[in-house]
């Protein structure tokens, strides 16, 4: 996936806010729909899923409930969604990690999100932030931190083994030529708690869950993982600005259903998701530090497959494993 293609997906809201197409015929839900979120409550996945669930429920005239199925870097929830009846009543909240990393990390699981799911549409993108803990780390910029990491052993936390948080750090360490001990947690909330308790020296987590602690001074932000600075943290440089040329790892979110879901059901759910793309929803996403994405639903499977291929290459090169 090229940088131009990904940025084009984020450009403007003209099409994003356009009136939805005529209502798809042939399927209307008659009972509650669940969205499986593969991480615990409180993290960015859970936050974004709940933002989307509210207008989706209004559009479908049925309750849309969030079911948190955490574990194995999101693989447990992905398996549950893949094995659910393909009737439109179970939706997977997809992430970069589930589609781009887990097929490598959990190769024997029997689940490959690109192969096994049909995308209903992309929702948005967020940056991860490299945050260090004042008192445990002295460095105030990326190059200083790299030098410090080369002088003494450090411990980093992630939101789970094989997660985009883990991979962001693995790529960083490889490019910087440093090593650190990895402590995986079960989602963003446990990682943030560990950072606040000063159990680890540093970690990568999204702007959605890191910004408040950075602004308070509890975390010291050294860099963001995208090629442009995060609007919520305009003073924090990118990894590339910090000296790591070519570093670009934005985190995206989508909704998906099992591949065998009937076409009329997919069409109706895609239409409903498109109808949630209002200015109000965009504003709520931005409040959660997520930039809305504008990729037509019919093109989202190809977009995701290209992005996943890139992430899988990175995962292989970083030698990410489930152990």
Describe this structure in words.
- With 323 residues, the chain is an alpha/beta fold.
- It has helices at residues 3-10, 44-60, 75-83, 96-105, 113-116, 142-151, 164-176, 188-196, 207-216, 263-275, 279-287, 297-318, and strands at residues 33-37, 64-68, 90-95, 117-126, 128-132, 155-158, 181-184, 202-206, 220-224, 251-258, 291-292.
- α2 (44-60) packs across α10 and α4 (96-105) packs across α12.
- The strands form 2 sheets. Strands 2-1-3-10-4-11 form a 6-stranded mixed β-sheet, with helices on both faces.
- It starts with a helix and ends in a 5-residue tail after the last helix.
- It has 12 helices and 11 strands.
- It folds into 2 domains: 3-126 and 251-318, D-Maltodextrin-Binding Protein, domain 2 (3-Layer(aba) Sandwich), CATH 3.40.190.150; 128-224, 3-Layer(aba) Sandwich (D-Maltodextrin-Binding Protein, domain 2).
- The protein is globular.
- Belongs to the UPF0065 (bug) family.
- Residues 1-24 form the signal peptide.
- Pfam families: TctC (PF03401).
- This is Tripartite tricarboxylate transporter substrate binding protein.
Short précis:
The protein has 323 residues and is of the alpha/beta class. The chain has helices at residues 3-10, 44-60, 75-83, 96-105, 113-116, 142-151, 164-176, 188-196, 207-216, 263-275, 279-287, 297-318; strands at 33-37, 64-68, 90-95, 117-126, 128-132, 155-158, 181-184, 202-206, 220-224, 251-258, 291-292. The protein has twelve helices and eleven strands.
């Amino acid at each position: 996936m090229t940088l131009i293609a990904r940025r084009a997906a984020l450009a403007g809201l003209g099409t994003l806010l356009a009136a939805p197409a005529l209502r798809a015929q042939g399927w209307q839900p008659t009972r509650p729909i669940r969205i499986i979120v593969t991480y615990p409550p409180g993290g960015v996945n859970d936050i974004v899923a709940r933002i989307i669930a509210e207008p989706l429920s209004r559009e479908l005239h049925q309750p849309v409930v969030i079911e948190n199925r955490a574990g194995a870097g999101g693989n447990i929830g992905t398996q549950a969604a893949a094995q659910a009846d393909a009737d439109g009543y179970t939706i997977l909240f997809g992430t970069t990690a589930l589609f781009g990393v887990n097929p490598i990390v959990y190769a024997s699981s029997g689940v490959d999100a690109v192969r096994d799911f049909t995308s209903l549409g992309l929702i948005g993108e967020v940056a991860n932030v490299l945050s260090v803990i004042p008192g445990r780390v002295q460095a105030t910029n990326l190059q200083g931190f790299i030098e410090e990491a080369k002088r003494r052993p450090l411990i980093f936390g992630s939101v789970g083994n094989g997660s985009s948080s883990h991979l962001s750090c693995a790529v960083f360490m490889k490019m910087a030529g440093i090593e650190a001990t990895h402590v995986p947690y079960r989602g963003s909330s446990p990682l943030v708690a560990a950072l606040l308790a000063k159990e680890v020296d540093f970690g990568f987590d999204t702007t959605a869950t890191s910004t408040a602690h950075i602004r308070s001074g509890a975390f010291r932000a050294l860099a963001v993982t995208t090629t442009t600075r995060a609007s919520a943290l305009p003073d924090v440089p990118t990894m590339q600005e910090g000296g790591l040329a070519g570093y670009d790892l934005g985190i995206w979110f989508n909704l998906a259903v099992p591949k065998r879901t009937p076409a009329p059901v997919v069409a109706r759910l895609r239409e409903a998701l498109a109808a949630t793309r209002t200015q109000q929803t965009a504003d709520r996403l931005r409040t959660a530090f997520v930039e809305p994405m504008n990729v037509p639903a019919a093109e989202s499977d190809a977009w995701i497959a290209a992005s996943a291929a890139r992430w899988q290459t990175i995962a292989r090169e970083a030698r990410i494993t489930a152990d």
